[in-house]
From TrEMBL:
Signal sequence range: 1-24
Family label: Belongs to the peptidase C1 family.
Alphabetized Pfam families for the sequence: Inhibitor_I29 (PF08246), Peptidase_C1 (PF00112)
Protein name: Cysteine proteinase
Domain Cathepsin propeptide inhibitor: 64-120
Keyword Hydrolase appears in the UniProt entry: yes
Organism of provenance: Manihot esculenta (Cassava)
Organism superkingdom: Eukaryota
Entry-linked SUPFAM superfamilies: Cysteine proteinases (SSF54001)
Protein's UniProt keywords contain Repeat: no
């Protein structure tokens, strides 16, 4: 046992050293002492140790079979099986790397381990344009005093159950409905499940500045485009009248069945205190971020040492924040955001992601919007 553990630790140390060696020249902040702690032989964290031990000691194929069973995976041919096993093996290495880069979260085997990074991005995210710019009017700064230390719209009943986008790049539609569901609840006291499928089937709106960034069903879209589509179309149906299929189909929108009308929307400034203030005052906010670490995320507060801020590929819903997150290594406690995702409850923390707050982490502060519903 002791020898096996040493092997595991040696691999962590080697991986971490590789990471710091390849990046140290490009970013001085990586010489941050925290990275040295990861290379420390004396890793105190059970999850981390157990995951690495499993990953290294259990045969990859054996692990792959457990994965297939757990997530009901089937492959059509022997070739496909072998190909997916290879992708899985690479993703195990990526999960170990993510763990070393993001020590306050737990990374491991998720339902996405048989997908390459490109496949994952294409099928399970879906923000177009990369967030190179943000359109529209930005709200004026609001007074930020008197915010609660922690806050959670789920506890106030403003958030529907975690949904599942499936293998369709429609995250933008889920982020949009989430923001409208919250705004409608705050305006009327009624929580409705609203229709993503209407947006997937009917919305082709393009960004006002980046004309190539258009809403395109399972091919991606933008939340701000979707608000503009809804303002023009007249409103949004409920999930019940226009259910989700996960495929783009013919537009079946029926004005008679409109449940909620959108009056307007605003983009929120990048300042995270402003984001918190808008969240508390206006309800859950639609957010774009870089989802790279989410492919292997199991739980905890994600706070990667590097996470590209400039490539936003995934739309999610900000529903709250906390002051002190559980931190598994000895990095101290981290304040975090609570983020609703659309990959079902099996992913992450019952479908939610916690991301550290105050660092513009993974670009989460660059594409934030609030929607205003029309109360008739
Ligand atoms: C939304 O739909 C889910 C799944 O069908 C259901 O469990 C939940 O109760 C619904 N929520 C509301 C507020 O209607
Ligand atoms: C939407 O909001 C912006 C700024 O918040 C305002 O200038 C604009 O007039 C509003 N549009 C409508 C239709 O209310």
């Amino acid at each position: 046992m002791i020898i096996q553990e040493r092997i595991a630790f040696a691999v962590v140390a080697a991986l971490t050293l590789t990471i710091s060696a390849t990046t140290a020249t490009s970013d001085a902040s990586l010489r941050d002492p925290t990275i040295l702690q990861v290379t420390d032989d004396n890793i105190p964290n059970v999850y981390h140790r157990k995951f690495l031990k499993d990953a290294l000691l259990l045969g990859t194929e054996e692990r792959f079979k457990i994965f297939m069973k757990k997530y009901n995976k089937e492959y059509g041919s022997r070739e496909e099986y072998v190909h997916r096993l290879g992708v899985f093996a690479k993703n195990i290495v990526r999960a170990v790397e993510h763990q070393a880069m993001d020590p306050t979260a737990v990374h491991g085997v998720t339902q996405f381990m048989d997908l390459t990074e490109d496949e994952f991005e294409r099928m399970y995210t879906g923000v177009v344009g990369g967030g190179a710019h943000v359109e529209g009017v930005t709200t004026s700064f609001v007074e930020a005093g008197g915010l609660p230390g922690s806050f959670d719209w789920r506890k106030k009943g403003a958030v529907t159950d975690v949904k599942m986008q499936g293998a369709c790049g429609s995250c933008w539609a889920f982020s949009t409905t989430g923001a409208i569901e919250g705004a409608h609840f705050i305006a009327t006291g009624k929580l409705l499940n609203l229709s993503e499928q209407q947006l997937v089937d009917c919305d082709n709106k393009c960004d006002m500045v980046d004309k190539r960034a258009c809403d395109d069903g399972c091919g991606g879209g933008l939340m701000t485009n979707a608000y503009r589509y809804l303002m023009e179309a007249g409103g949004l149906e409920e999930e019940g009248s226009y259910p989700y299929t996960g495929k783009r189909g013919e537009c079946k929108f029926d004005k008679e069945k409109i449940a909620v009308k959108v009056a307007n929307f605003t983009n929120i400034p990048i300042d995270e205190t402003q984001i918190a203030t808008h969240l508390v005052h206006h309800g859950p906010l639609a957010v774009g971020l870089n989802a790279i670490f989410m492919q292997t995320y199991i739980g905890g507060v994600s706070c990667p040492l590097i996470c590209g801020k400039k490539w936003i590929n995934h739309g999610v819903l900000l529903v709250g924040y906390g002051a002190k997150g559980f931190s598994i290594l000895r990095f101290g406690y981290k304040p975090y955001w609570i983020i609703k995702n659309s990959w079902g409850k099996q992913w992450g923390e019952e479908g939610y992601y916690r991301l550290c707050r105050g660092h513009g982490m993974c670009g989460m502060n660059r594409m934030v919007s609030a929607v205003v519903t029309q109360v008739s």
